Amino acid sequence: MLNVSLVTVPSSLTFIFEHNTFGYCYSANHRQDSELLLGTSDGVQLLSRYATRLSKYSTSEKVVNCVIETLQNVFILHRSGDISKVDMCLAGDITKRQQLFQFDRTGNFAPVMAVSYRYVVVNLPDTDQLIIFDLITKQKETIKPVVYLTGLHFLPDGHLLGVGRGALRKYKVGIGKLTPVWTCIHLPYGYSVCADSNGIIYVCADSIKTSYIISPMGEDMLRKYVCLNYTHTYITKATAKYKSLL
Q1: Of 137, 146, 189, 144, which is closest to residue 166 (Cα–Cα)?
Q2: Do 96 and 201 reside in the same domain of the chain?
Q3: Does 2 reside within a domain?
Q4: 72 and 49 in one domain?
Q5: Which SUPFAM superfamilies does this chain map to (predicted)?
Q6: Of 12, 55, 74, 190, which residue is the least packed, with the fewest Cβ within 10 Å?
Q7: Does 143 share its domain with 227?
Q8: Which pTM value belongs to this model?
Q9: End-to-end Cα separation, the chain, in angstroms
Q10: Helices and strands (H, E) in the chain, number of each type
């Protein structure tokens, strides 16, 4: 029996609009109501669905490197001097918050964060490490992965996507441990990663203005790059052919 699934892959990107932020923009996160939360050098800003300009969502933090909203909470990664902190706030009232953890900073590169129903993961650009925080047990572990990950994104099933050193990796997460599921290689300058509601993965490249579109199984859907699949003993290749984005 042949198991076939069809997905729609965009062959082009359409410019819709642009907005100026108050300060430098570090991250963007879609809320369930289609609003956009932005982490900037001037706090958390909000772009409402039909708004023509941004508004201030929170000014309690000055430099916000990442902001992520889940069903009940808003997670804010922000920096104050030589310390970065991760706070968890109520989605309906961000003044009600608690600090989950903090870490020292020595450099100027912005860290990134990913949040699932169980874990908060933050990369440490000063030491090439990762912090894994368990939201249930409140346990925090710092690990040094084989490859430093510059981009992080949790899938709905709890698996973590990480991009670094020209490759995209999918991991099973445990406290203090990342177990690789598959790796998609040959993604030059891959820097950040996200996924849509269909499970299609998007990797943005730094410096070369390129985006890679990856299938949920880790196959490059625009170019025939090799995918090493740790769950099988064989090597698979992307077979679909589509027009390039460029």
Answers
A1: 189
A2: no
A3: no
A4: yes
A5: NHL repeat
A6: 12
A7: yes
A8: 0.82
A9: 36
A10: 0, 21
